[in-house]
Amino acid sequence: MNKNQLFVERREQGDYAVRRPNSQRASDVLPTQAAAIARSRKLSPGSTPLVERVRTTTRGHTDQWRKP
Predict the structure, then answer these.
(1) Is the N or the C terminus of the chain less surrounded, counting Cβ atoms within 10 Å?
(2) Which domain holds residue 18?
(3) Is position 38 within any domain?
(4) How many angstroms from the chain centroid is the CA of residue 48?
């Protein structure tokens, strides 16, 4: 896994955390998923963040990762 890879995941509080793999703390916490994706792109411009799926769709279920 790329050390510059970032993950956007939903927290229990309803906001979104931007994390690096195996990190203890979030790099940033933002109120919306869109804001967290934009922040992750600024933190790691050459990498595409992986975003936690937060709703069930015809293509995937919750707790799966997708590219934005």
Answers:
(1) N
(2) 7-54
(3) yes
(4) 10
Question: Which tokens sit at 28?
Answer: 């940033």
Average pLDDT value for residue range 31-57? 87
Exposed, middle or buried: residue 6 (CB in 10 Å: 0-12, 13-18, 19+)?
Answer: buried
Task: Judge whether 45 lies within some domain.
Answer: yes
How far is C-alpha 33 from the geometric centre of its chain's CA atoms?
A: 8
Q: In angstroms, rounded to a whole number, what is the distance separating the alpha carbons of residues 56 and 5?
A: 24
SS3 per-residue string spanning 5-21: CCEEEECCCCCEEEECC
| DSSP H or E stretch at residue 39 | helix 33-43
The answer to whether 9 and 30 are in contact (CB under 8 A) is no
Q: What is the number of domains present in the chain? A: 1
In a domain, 44, yes or no: yes
pTM of the model: 0.78
